[in-house]
Each structure stands twice: as structure tokens, then as C-alpha cells.
Design goal:
By secondary structure, the chain is mainly β. The chain is built from no helices and six strands. It has a six-stranded antiparallel sheet with strand order 4-3-2-1-6-5, with no helix packed on it. Strand 1 and strand 2 form a beta hairpin.
Length: 84
């Protein structure tokens, strides 16, 4: 079953990464201001490179990592929902 993952990444700047499984990869977007609980508020989401499925399970510290150094935690995850 496909899934989504939202990670908090404390790199050069604190930001969220939103990931959505598409086939055998996680499509990923950086969200600098993080998610909003108000559906009327729009947030910038910048596409970043696709990641392996295992990247969605990562929690820890990237040190001198090509994708950015800093602590990463899984903030939320689960199956995608249909809103219709």
C-alpha cells in the first residue's frame, strides 16, 4: 500500500519534507514554513529529488550528507487519504 511521510529536518534552516510514495520511490517536496492546520493557508512546497523508500523511515542525524546535514525526525506518516 502506498504511504506518505512528513519529516522535520533541522539543516541549515529548519524545514519539513513531504514525501509521497509513487511506485518504488518517494516523491519529495521541501516545505520551508511547515504544514498549516488551516486548509485556507497555502504553503510553498519546492520539489526535491526522489528518494528511496527507506529514506521515509530515517530518523537520526545526517552528518556531512549530500542532501543536507542535521537532525531528521518522522513527524507524521500513513496511507494517503482520498478527499472526495
Amino acid at each position: 500500500m502506498p504511504r506518505f511521510v512528513v519529516q522535520l529536518h533541522d539543516a541549515t534552516t529548519l524545514h519539513f519534507i513531504s514525501r509521497l510514495q509513487s511506485g518504488q520511490v518517494l516523491r519529495s517536496w521541501a516545505v520551508p514554513k511547515g504544514p498549516s492546520l488551516d486548509p485556507g493557508i497555502r504553503r510553498l512546497a519546492v520539489p526535491v529529488e526522489d528518494h528511496s523508500l527507506s529514506a521515509g523511515d530515517f530518523e537520526g542525524v545526517h552528518e556531512e550528507h549530500r542532501r543536507g546535514s542535521g537532525a531528521v525526525i518522522v513527524w507524521d506518516e500513513g496511507p494517503p487519504r482520498s478527499f472526495g
